[in-house]
Amino acid sequence: MENINSLQDQKSSHYILHKANTRGHADHGWLESYHTFSFANYQNNDRMNFGVLRVLNDDRVNQGMGFGKHPHDNMEIISIPLEGDLEHQDSMGNTTVIKEGDIQIMSAGTGIFHSEKNKNHNQFVKFLQIWVYPNKKNVTPRYDQISLDLKDRRNKLQQILSPNSNDQGVWIHQDAWFHIGRFDKAFSSSYQLKKAGNGIYAFVLKGDFTIGEIKLNERDGLGIWNTDSIKVIANSDEAEILIMEVPMEL
Known about the structure:
single chain; mainly beta; Jelly Rolls; 7-stranded mixed sheet; 7-stranded antiparallel sheet; 0% helix; globular; metal ion binding; Quercetinase_C; Pirin family protein; RmlC_Cupin_sf
């Protein structure tokens, strides 16, 4: 396998760059959402998914507003709050609130209903909504959330999700691993893929980064495959990045 450190010497089929301003955009008044991949009214045949990563929505919900109760099935749904408090209710009897540092997972399986609402009336809530195709269909629906120590992502990649219930972070029905890192300027970190044949989708939450020779700015996404490791360099202070390792085969 070739290494991302020589990315510009590789064939272009080994990576795909999604600049922030090329994402789909929807403004519903109460909700503003940017779609990395096709979703709802944004349909782009060239941006349907990255391997089993199907949805990456960057959502901002107005004060006191939210998504009413709606159904899902056979999808792993991950929510990562970035600002504010998100109130969750579902047909499994869960009523809870998630905030920055928390990770929420729903295995929709045979079918669930849920709602997500901005709990506060004095600030926005911002969060990432991520859908991953599962490796098992029609599982018993499941909900979980955990709170992570934000200090554990300072100048390192903190694991927030994996396939293993006894590992760090939440777990999902898929051979996927997610990490978040918050770096000082000029700090670098390497990431070694956990499973051969997987790819990486990197999404910049804050600041600027370089991966290989590719420069990334806030909310840019970079999908990489046919590599076994990457090197990430922060080009600004308090730069934050989400690294999602996922299978490339649906």
